[in-house]
Design a protein that fits this description.
Its main location: nucleus. By secondary structure, the protein is mainly alpha-helical. Helix content is 68%, strand content 4%.
Length: 159
């Protein structure tokens, strides 16, 4: 069963905010512990609560201190090697979305041509009007469909 997507916004009700903080904090602490145990990595979390004098530390203050000290002893180059800044993250997201859009546009164009071919709504000289790139795309699409049909036929022939 899937959960409903929640809007990320400040919770105005104090009681609800404190309850949510408490639940999510314990969930985060559990995840840090699981990550450390299951993957054999050093992981820690330090959470400063709005109504707490001291921060909550996971797995324990000594373990967190060791992990933070080890992190600080690394060179800046090592520290930032796998860290994405906002710009590079957005660029990656944009590139992925762009690739997905191009793929969807190609699929739509292919399906549109098939529908037009099936219903006979293509003009008689439609092949002559296609560009070299479109002809190549059409050829690849036809080959892909022929392979799919052949696979279906062989699977139907086998008892």
């Amino acid at each position: 069963m899937t959960r409903k997507k929640i809007d990320l916004a400040y919770i105005k009700n104090d009681v609800a905010r404190k309850t949510t903080f408490k639940k999510r904090k314990s969930g985060l602490m559990k995840k840090v512990s699981e990550l450390s145990i299951l993957c054999g990595t050093d992981a820690c979390a330090v959470i400063y609560g709005q109504h707490q004098a001291n921060p909550d530390v996971s797995p324990c203050p000594d373990g967190a201190l060791r992990t933070i000290t080890r992190f600080k002893q690394m060179s800046k180059m090592e520290r930032s090697r796998n860290i994405l800044n906002r710009e590079s993250f957005l660029m990656q997201t944009i590139l992925k979305a762009d690739e997905k859009l191009k793929k969807q546009m190609n699929d739509n164009q292919e399906k549109e041509m098939m529908i037009q071919a099936i219903y006979g709504s293509l003009p008689a000289d439609w092949l002559q009007k296609l560009s070299h790139v479109d002809l190549n795309d059409l050829w690849l699409s036809v080959e892909k469909n022929i392979e799919a049909i052949e696979e279906m036929m062989t699977s139907l022939e086998k008892p």
